[in-house]
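User: Hey, quick favor. My workstation is busy. Could you predict this chain's structure for me?
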Amino acid sequence: MLRRLLSLLVVISPGISSAQAADLIKIGILGIDNYGSVAYTEFLNKPHAEGVFEGVRVVAAYPIGSDDYPDSDKLLAQWKEQLLNFYQNPADPKDAVPPIEMVNSVDELLAKCDAIMIFSIDGRLHLSQATTVLKAGKPLFISRPLASSPEDAVAILKLAEETGTPCWSSSQHRYNTGFSGMRDHPEVGRVIGCDVYGGWNVDAAEADKFTRPLHSIETLYTIMGPGVVSVTCASTPTTESITAVWNDGRVGTYRGIKQGAVKYSATVFGEKGVSTAGIYGHGVPVNGIVPTTDNYVGYEGLAIEIARFFQTGVAPVKPTETLEIFALMQAAEESKSQDGAMVKLKNLWEPSAR
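Assistant: No problem, here it is.
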């Protein structure tokens, strides 16, 4: 367990016993201009947390943004206010949660925390931020994207291995039940192929251009698993179309929607049947009907995995799979520049730890 004793300066709320406080995993946030800083803290800091959320809490944040990312300053101020007000002044004092402390440097954040989450919206900052955290030996979760380029992604995961520090990144789409439940869906059986669709932002900020398909590519991997060997990509004013071939002959596609209505889902082809996947935030289809009035689950699935990671030190997504996704996006860009030619995936780096 990655649990450490609280310092004498920690304020214990009325709802937390001394024994619980002694086992608390103190989490810090580096960069807060990404909405994820708010979305996951809402789960990690709930009063009277139970189950996987018991014993973990965000205690501090370093509120920095990006000088050249659109609206970073505006987003930073918005999410900072929400973080400071989370679960403060409850009607019942027993529901009180200690306020999140805003610190003035990375060093101060590292000194106060056992583990770190990076939520800078600009992926170009992640390598330098992660380097400081990993060299300090603090377990690290990086909100998507892991990095803004394959080179930075390799550098981060390589340093994590060199320092022996647990580190991973994921889109929340990977843990959406409507997607993850399709891998063993009784109406589909073993998955033979999958067509994923989602938005493609034609006006994306420079920092996001390479990783635009990441949400949907992670959906594709959630349903199909790793093993892509080659990619082709066709790009038109209405669609970004990526076709991937797996090492066992299976085929998966991603349709990036540039014009028209945008939804995030997939069609899954299996040994037993063909089915539409659930829509993002909802569950798997039953008898071919996709639920839309069930309990909406957006960020909770990934929040559970983040909490579990900080408790166990075991990353649920292997670095080899994360790097394969970056290699796929790189191959798609190369294919597009070659008028849709087939491009084999490069082995970006082979971690020794699996």
